Amino acid sequence: FDVTLSPGEEIRLPKILCYEFTNKTDMDCWKLHNYMHIHYPRKAMPVIYDTWMYCFDYISCENVTAQIAPAAELGVEYFFIDAGWFGKGKNWTKSVGDWEENTVTGFQGHMIDVAEAVRAAGMKFGIWLEPERADPLSDSVRDHPDFYIPGDVEPGRYFLDFANPEARAWMLGVIFDLVDRYGVEYIKDDYNADMVFDPHHTAYRAYHEGQRAFIQAIRDRYPNIYLTSCASGGERMDLSAYTQFDSTWPSDNESPYTQFRIYRDTLLRMPPQGFERWMALHSLTGFEDFYKSFQGSNNVGTQRIIACGDAVWKHVEGVHMSWLKGFFTGGPIGLSMDLNLLTPEVRAQLKEFIAGIKKNREFWRTAVARILCDTPTATVLQYSDIDLSKAYVQLFCHQPQQNEFCLRPVVDEAKTYRLSTGEVLSGKEIAREGIAITHDPWRDNWHSMFEVVLEEV
Question: For residues 171 and 160, what is the distance between their CA atoms, to the nearest angstrom?
């Protein structure tokens, strides 16, 4: 609090939210979720396609347009181009801060054609930006040195001085021109650097107030634009970002298991609707079936799905479709892969799943989440409306050995529920007895998800 104010100057301190909790596993995070739904309601959570995990910065008109038709077929609503579309030569990293389309590499000046193809397929076009950072060799730093703060941790990086109204207005003009020129309806706002020392000596207050004003100016001019905050390793994955942006890209690590761990922990401090879930998948075929003596109704055939196990496809890991369907509920869905390498069976399953999410999107827009159980072998999540008329209970099996589980959802004991299993049970029965799930540990429960839906009769 060691800040000197000028006459008439004010400081608006952050809100502090306090509430009682009884569940020590999730600290009754559903109360936080409900508060945010009331005061900061969400837009409908979209389905997004990103080029990054498909081809990183090796983009071209040919390889990107090859993804447009399959993306539209799956139900994608926003199709955006990640880093690599801008720059003044082959090394675009030296042009960070100069947000002009590259005419040497990338689309070679033809990004408008890609944007029009995206719109012709029924999707909205978007781009990746990092307006907060600039390379010291960029034209922006050379032409506007007073608009930037030299990096103190990494001397090779400069930061747009959000505390400077002239700097903000100049960068807003750059972004407005891009939005109008290419018909941009989605922006991924990234932040890939660290600044330790505040040259304004306000503990970053002036900087962050300027950053908020910057984002608000974009919203004021384009009220329907979708803004994603790239979390930079979680540094801006918080309630403040939740109020400014439509959703958050949580991590470049695309492992469905690492993402799930991050998501589970983030539920304690942010509603599920602000957390983007990203898939980076490939289909593999030709695997041998289970031992023939164990084949039965649960035989999964020779097809397998593998997922990126890190941020750069250096490691891969197998993933079950049930796990993907469980994790990718409750928030924006992101696809970043070569969609043409998915088998028709996998594409059909994803299409059906995405259609189901869209059909129930109004429920997911205001659902609150609970963590009912979290152990090394199993995690149980529950999503429900606030009056517990409808609930999705999801059992995520990590590597358990048991073949029986008893789910204990939170229900209204005065209500009667119909389960997706066909049973009709009173709330009192469910609260007293729970819901049993039995399965075959040989085939079913290695990183799999089982779901039970409860609806009030």
Answer: 9
Residue 364 has a CB neighbour count (10 Å cut-off) of: 19
How far is Cα 345 from Cα 343, in angstroms, rounded to an integer? 5
| CA distances in angstroms from 396 to 170, 294, 418, 446, listed in the order given | 48, 24, 22, 9
At 412, is the secondary structure helix, strand, or coil?
coil
**13's tokens:** 């301190």
The answer to whether 343 touches 362, Cβ cutoff 8 Å, is no
How do residues 288-347 score in pLDDT, each as one tens digit?
A: 666 665 555 455 567 889 999 999 999 999 999 999 999 999 999 999 999 999 999 999
Residue-wise over 379-413: b if at least 16 C-beta within 10 A, else e?
A: bbbbbbeeebebbbbbbbbbebeeeebebbbbbbe
Report how far residue 129's alpha carbon sits from residue 177's, in angstroms, rounded to the nearest whole number: 13
3-state SS assignment for residue 283: strand
Better-scored residue on pLDDT, 92 or 414: 414
- For the record, the structure tokens of 89 come out as 């030569």
Can you give the pLDDT at residue 329? 92
Q: Report the C-alpha gap between 363 and 366 in whole angstroms.
A: 6
β-pairing verdict for 316-318 and 277-279: unpaired
- How many Cα atoms sit within 13 Å of 259 on the Cβ side? 29
Q: Which amino acid is at 305?
A: I
Identity at 214, one-letter amino acid code: F
Residues 6+ apart with CB under 8 A from 23: 370, 371
